[in-house]
Known about the structure:
Elements lengths: L6 E5 L6 H12 L3 E3 H9 L3 H8 L1 H15 L6 E3 L8 H9 L1 E7 L2 H8 L20 H16 L4 E4 L5 H14 L9
Parallel strand pairs: 1-3, 1-4, 2-3, 4-5
Helix pairs in contact: 1-8, 2-4, 3-4, 6-7
The site of shikimate-3-phosphate has 11 residues, from helix 1.
Amino acid sequence: MSESRKNIVLIGFMGTGKSTVGKTLSKKMGRTLVDIDQRIEEGQKRRIADIFEKDGETVFRDLEKRAIREAVLGSGLVITTGGGAVMDPENLSVLKERGIVILLEAQPDTIYKRVKDSRHRPLLHLPAGQAGSNDVMGEIRRLLAQRQPQYDRADFKFATDGKSAAQVSDEILAKLSEEEEFGKDWF
Ligand code: S3P
């Protein structure tokens, strides 16, 4: 297999299943998984919520950009990104240059159900008293609309509502194997 095998990059909003599908897909393909948020947390030795709280989003975005630049130096990886990572056009460009970018999608109410109890999503769980704290669904809709133009630049899109990670992974694999460009040595 060549050293220049493309990476497979999962993008999409919070709660669309990037991390769980990334795990299943990388296992099914025998590829190494690189989770950008996890890389940032390991490098910083603290949680993303803590980075947002103590240093703010700008510092987080800078760390995210660096982690992405580092990750794309690899080849043949499955790379999972945080929901806001592709809002920086340079991030999306380097990911596309070195990989096939796959968007995972879900309806706002599915996203809400998946994220409502999570404690590690600072953008949707602002401390009480700040804008957005009482209207998670409104914030999901607002952010989704703002981000859609960048998400739409993905090479392929998959809906994840009502599906297991294994089902979504199989759909992705079927699509990829159809892609002549990448041929059989792709796997
Ligand atoms: C973010 C999504 C999070 C994480 C950070 C910011 C976003 O990742 O990167 O909290 O801007 O949408 P997930 O999409 O894995 O929740």
